[in-house]
């Protein structure tokens, strides 16, 4: 995967495979070495792209050199990769955790509860532009007392990715994508009526991805997967919202025949269908668009992204960085300087975008090449620069940008991957068995999810 967008997708795919690997980790035991008086501070950091992604690797390595030149008292020791669930637990337990390490948005609550991250509440007060970050993203890195343990560096929200080409062929207006699930259903009927194997709407149902997307469905209806009941978490989908979401899927699959006969799909299956011009719509974040272009022979002008149908909420995800709890104060300070300079630096927006333009990378998509983590004047500055240098049809994503700026985004539930595994079976049942008992499926899944949630501390 060569684009930064596909890199983001691969990181989320790893997250889906992690299946709660953090739950069993012991507290990290960093080296805690102090910095010699008058000497340089050396910090290890994750996030260096692999050599198989030459553009991203070259940008990262150039940034390290530029940062060290402008911060002569800090040495960066970059480590390749992001979060590998096969090794992360062992690194935590064995004291090999980097000083600055990458996390998915699903990770901080568990990491904070196990004292595996440094408290940066006071140190971050000297970091520029923190107050310009979206408060809901910062809250994902806070504990119950409001103490801060990390910074968000990338954000995505789910929406509706659709084929503008198929919309036109089906007599639909590609500049007016569906805003409700009823409109999605009607559009899916018209698209599937084109025949020749064209599918109106597709969805995931295996490898935890079905549960992930069912969560998106629930959020779009103002519902939830789990809620706090006193001091414990309980399942919150065995209700009218859960029934409504599954009934839509059932009816599109079996009554309308607009989802196709082939089921048990995951991300690559659906992306392949869209790239081949055989799919009208699916739930996705904007980072799917470059994947369709670079891996599945799609064209940027053929795709649009709408906000999440229903407009009552959307699934919010992303990534950020935290700091080893055993890092010295000097390393904490140096680590925060690196995170801010590299990932959260409005002064470098234009240069970063110009790098993408020079290498013919996409500019104008909703999140890359600068992250969608900002509010206020910084966000306006970011949007203006992306519009100035856009080399993809940014107007195709206007509905998404407008919608996500006003609807509530909610993060994934605790122990998300174990919950998604339990919910996969619900999606599979509804999409493969016309006579599936929705009430029974929801009740059974709720029991499993409550068992998972009982492990949350």
Automatic annotation (TrEMBL):
The keyword Kinase does not apply. Keywords: Signal. It comes from the Bacteria. It holds the Pfam family SBP_bac_1. Residues 1-28 form the signal peptide. Coiled coil: none annotated. PROSITE patterns: PROKAR_LIPOPROTEIN. PANTHER family: ARABINOSE-BINDING PROTEIN-RELATED, SUGAR-BINDING LIPOPROTEIN. This is ABC-type glycerol-3-phosphate transport system, substrate-binding protein. It comes from Amycolatopsis tolypomycina.
